[in-house]
Amino acid sequence: MDNLEKGNSSYKDSLKSMDTEETFDLIFYRPIGYRWALLAKKLGITPNAITIASIFLGVGAGVAFYFDNIWINVIGVVLLMWADSFDSADGQLARMTKQYSRIGRILDGLSGDLWFIAIYVAICLRENVTSDFFSAHHWVIWVMAVVTGFFHATQAAMADYYRQFHLFFLKGKEGSELDTASVLRERFHQLSWKKDFWSKLTLAFYTNYTVGQEKRTPWMQRLRSVLKEKYGQDIPQSFRDAFREKSKPLMKYTNILSFNTRSFALFAAILIFRMPWLYFAFELTVLNIVLVYMMCRHEKICKSFVRQLQREG
Questions:
Q1: Comparing 40-44, 97-101, 149-153, 288-292, which segment has the lowest mean pLDDT?
Q2: What are phi and psi of 12, to 5 degrees?
Q3: 3-class DSSP state for residue 69?
Q4: 3-class secondary structure for 243-267?
């Protein structure tokens, strides 16, 4: 910890913002990720290379969770925590070295999806072998997995979107990864399938991802439109501060819908209760309640600011 304290300013610079950081991340994952990032910087390893390594670790965790053996499951827990420390390190390294890229952002989001796809498949296969009910009704656990996966993707997408919107008001465009579907579509049409196949393909998926976020947030889009019309790129600091004050309390919900809460529930279902399917139940009930509450609160905030700007205009 001494070395971390000596380089405290560099460590803080590697974080997105104190507004959006989760307490457990600050205590555990961010310090570990920072050390990985320093080592990677010294060895000339890129953020994308760390992200790819995290994919193998996360998928390995999924494989370990298939086995109905607590010690192999513990290995899976270690692998998943290692993967998340790499997931922290890639972002910290990117901020330290200014190696930002849209491909890196897409790859970072994809890595978490691949971890949980492997975990979902492992849970389904395991329950079909170890559970009397799921052994007799194989399709039930797979339907649960598919439905849970859909909501998982929605929860993660919206948590990320609200976090980026908050960072936009806190740090401006340069400190946020907030995108607009219309701009992404323009970029997509500028690319050639023949010359830029992979870039165009990844941008197609990312554009669709952004479209989904925008469709679920009509009042946020209205607010963005009104702000652009009224202020262009120069939103007054007073408005930024006012929005940040209202948005900051919701950041705890974006964190609940991120990795740590999910992993704690997953570890409890596998290691303590020895019923992995309980993790699906947790995502479908508790996390969906948090999602709906967060979205309603955020839309209400955006609506109030739209009304305020219209009165002033």
A1: 97-101
A2: -65, -35
A3: coil
A4: HHHHHHHHHHHHHHCCHHHHHHHHH
